[in-house]
Amino acid sequence: MKGYIYKLYSGADISLGWKFNDPIFGDVSTLGACVPNIREHVEVGDWVFALSGRVPDKVPYIVGGFKVDEKIDALEAHARFPDYRLVQDENGHIAGNIIVNADGEHHPLDDHSNFERRRSNYLVGRESVYARNAEQAEKMRSRTHNIIENVFEKKANRAFDIVGRWRRVDAAQIQTMIREMKRALG
To answer: How far apart are CA 34 and CA 100, in angstroms?
Structure first.
């Protein structure tokens, strides 16, 4: 078992009212559009964790993580997870992480490049640990730096100095991360 922890892009933080659409955490957790390099290398049984993005005057926090149960194509995800299809709400916010339409073509709401590479390796997991609301996110924010230092056995001024854009984690580090996250979330 191995895993990855990766940093989301700038602004991806609940403190700014951000609604996470990739990854999506819940009864069925998924990662379907972002970090195709990680999704390609992850195997069933591995874990994927996400750190919030950079926000002025806020330290990042571990948004959550999940154990990969399946790797499927985005078209299969479209059929199985209708609630995770791309949609735009009345405020212009785009939700969902399935980047294909019912015909398997590139969805017009997905404005990223490298579609062909990104449509494969849609990750599905059912065992997950994550901050479920703003209160839990703030609890994770207060503990994330210490968790990251403990997991990687390295001292640093910032969690991003240890993790960078993404970092691989081994089985022992995954277990430490899960245990510490559950403890922080109460």
So the answer is: 14
Rounded Cα gap, residues 41 and 36, in angstroms? 9
Quote the CA–CA distance of 38 and 184 in Å, as a whole number: 26
Q: What is the pLDDT of residues 78-92, one digit of tens each?
A: 999 999 999 998 888
Which of 43, 34, 76 lies closest to 168, judged by CA? 43
Single out the residue of 36, 20, 32 nearest to residue 166, CA to CA.
36
Q: Measure the CA angle with vertex 62, ends 53 and 143; round to 5°.
A: 115
Q: pTM of the predicted model, to two decimals?
A: 0.93
Give the Cα-Cα-Cα angle 31, 34, 40 (nearest 5 degrees).
Answer: 75
What is the rounded distance in angstroms from the CA atom of residue 153 to the CA atom of residue 130? 22
CB 102 within 8 Å of CB 78? yes
C-alpha distances in angstroms, 137 versus 24, 96, 105? Answer: 15, 20, 35
Please give the Cα distance from 53 to 160 (Å, whole number).
10
Q: What is the mean pLDDT of the chain?
A: 92
Which tokens belong to 94?
């785009």
| Helices within the chain (DSSP H only) | 36-41, 74-80, 115-118, 134-152, 159-163, 171-185
Longest dimension (CA), the chain: 49
